[in-house]
Amino acid sequence: MKTLIIVAHPKLIESGTQKFLKTSLTKMEDVTWHVLDVTQPHFDVAAEQALLQKHDRIIFQFPLYWYSAPAVLKQWEDEVLNRNFVYGTQRALAKKELGIVVSTGDPQRGFVAGGDEQFTLSELLRPYQALANKAGMTYLPPFSIFQFAYLTETAKQRLVIDYQQYITNAEFQNFHGRELWFEDQLKQKLADSPDSQKLTQILTAIQDNREDLEELGWTLSMIKDDEDE
Amino acid sequence: MKTLIIVAHPKLIESGTQKFLKTSLTKMEDVTWHVLDVTQPHFDVAAEQALLQKHDRIIFQFPLYWYSAPAVLKQWEDEVLNRNFVYGTQRALAKKELGIVVSTGDPQRGFVAGGDEQFTLSELLRPYQALANKAGMTYLPPFSIFQFAYLTETAKQRLVIDYQQYITNAEFQNFHGRELWFEDQLKQKLADSPDSQKLTQILTAIQDNREDLEELGWTLSMIKDDEDE
């Protein structure tokens, strides 16, 4: 699976969040980091469309400005996503995935009915969901980062892993898919340093656990079947 | 009441809808028609903010591009609506109204759960509603125009009146407010042509009807009170 990350940020160099996210993807394969140039007056439509076609998972990545992406992403949409390409004869994005990576300096608790912002991020991002729908794309659950600057080190480490999976794991939405992804990551690391006892131990632990987990999964599904009857 | 219409349309000259809307406002007082220049790299923030402060009802008027306004309106939002001005110390927009005039070439029937577009316009325009909420503004029900090119002459005449009221009538959301607005419009027209028998007749008819309507209103409210008990 190839992923295209379309980064829309008018002050990219100043953004600690974007720098962190970019660093998280070091050594990740099949990922294209594509920054939208805010200084250009227009986009090269053919080049942008070709880039989209080469990838399977498309990510819009941006800080939330007035409950939406910065203007440059909208300009890109307005220019690049023309009717024929998206839902006319071509339908060039059909069967691809659309993901949103959105960061905001406002706290998560505000994004709820009755909260400071009144609406959830899922509601505010509807225009992207509607675009995915029109294009025949699969809309992924948005990946949101609230108040990055206040995250603890542990929370940041967790963010790295979650983000890596959102970008590179075709099956990040189920437990088994996440497990396989971890195993795959460990194997790659082991290939780099085959003598690491620690990595070998973790890999063995995951593989041992899997058998236990599969058994547990069976038991749970039997209990559930009983309850459903 | 002073109304500022912020028109965001990258191909304004080609737009029959926008031309029609502008013509509808000929002779309307206290209305500023403000077109966002898509060729400029940046907005004059101080001038735009001063303009906003001079008006009571702010209208974002645009064609729906990818379920949102064209990029130029977002650019205007990102540059002009800075934190202090909107919800910091200034709160310069508080108590003002925010209205949306949105046109689309897609049919109304698609904007519903299960329809082609999957979401209603009310849902898709949430980012503007959230902005109004944050700014302490009153959010007006969006004014939507579907498939303008296919409207009948009668529908267009109705559109003129509805649009005029959305822009200039402080009380367009209740029957009494609409009635007073019509009376006011007729009186202005009569001042221009005092000998018009037709206008005098219509005005008299409205005034006569009002007494009947007020009586009817009483009766209806009594019936409702009975039902509620």
UniProtKB/TrEMBL annotation, chains A, B:
Matches recorded under InterPro entries: Flavodoxin_fold, Flavoprotein-like_sf, KefG/KefF
Keywords, sorted A to Z: Oxidoreductase
Domain of life of the native organism: Bacteria
Protein's UniProt keywords contain Oxidoreductase: yes
SUPFAM superfamilies listed in its UniProt record: Flavoproteins
Gene3D superfamilies assigned: 3.40.50.360
One Pfam entry name: Flavodoxin_2
All residue ranges annotated as the Flavodoxin-like fold domain in the record: 1-164
Example of a GO MF term: FMN binding
Protein's name in the database: Flavodoxin family protein
